[in-house]
Description:
Layout: H1 3-18, H2 24-31, H3 35-47, H4 63-73, E1 77-81, H5 92-109, E2 116-119, H6 123-131, E3 141-144, H7 156-167, E4 171-172, H8 183-191, H9 193-203, E5 207-210, E6 213-214, H10 221-224, H11 230-238, E7 241-245, E8 248-251, H12 270-273, E9 278-282, H13 289-297, E10 303-307, H14 308-319
Amino acid sequence: MSISERDEFLATVATLYYKADQSQGEIARRFDISASQVSRLLKEARARNIITVHVHTPIPRDFALEQTLIQRFDLKEAYVLQSGNATAEASLLPLVGQLASSFLQRAIGQLPVGASVGIAWGTGVHAAVSALPGQPTQQVNAIQLMGGVGALAIDSPDLARMIAVKLGGRHHDLHAPVLVERAETRSIFLAEPTVREAMIRAQKVNLAITGIGTVAEEASSFLRAGLLNRAELAQLRRDGVIGEMCGRFFDGSGNDALAPINQRIIGIELADLRKIPTVLAVARGAVKAQAILGALRSRYLNVLATDDITVRAILQLDTA
């Protein structure tokens, strides 16, 4: 069989399989060959570019960067938005939220009835929860992972109630503010039975959804919420703090013990995040790259939803 005849035969087999929906067994009988030979012919056709694959994804993703993240930081999964077709920066986070939502639909669908999902706060968490379609038959409960802010639509209690309605479960509030004036005040709150029980529930969730915050002024949720001022943020940066998850601040090594402010935070401990089977973080923006990298290195999450702009900034920092 000449090269052109071989190519023609490979194209015929590929057309019958992919366009005519014939099985490998049917093709084998037609040409009096074995099914395993048909499989090898299809592989050869792909190797010689007679078969090319183009997958139409509803939201463009950078699968190569996803694989890099998974391998480098030992993640379960990664979802990286390909930002090239985005018309504006403001449109990126809602799209990242949709990618996160696609993961959540599958992950929540695998949870048993009565399971619980933990909710932190942040614009990324809000984008993911907003994009999540209603699945009331799931009967999955929503648990607050941190105290409330009381001033933003991205607050943990509001997000917990929103996702509970969508999943047909109950929501369990943590009746305390996320930040108090003194460590002694935090101890008083934690001594309350309702708060103590809420903290135990938070530690036992099957899946957690969190954002990753930064101490940079232009993107600090604590600053926007009026919980910290610019001078206090500057002091955190001088102390080596680079990021925040579930209201708790950490340095470049993922250490949260060096930040005295954490003694005034009411919410799940960062060490507890490592014990939760699945922790999805939704965060984007080059300004957050250092914080996201710190969280990745510290294994505070095992699923990340972000975009290619952010990932390239993360990888550049990691390489440096």
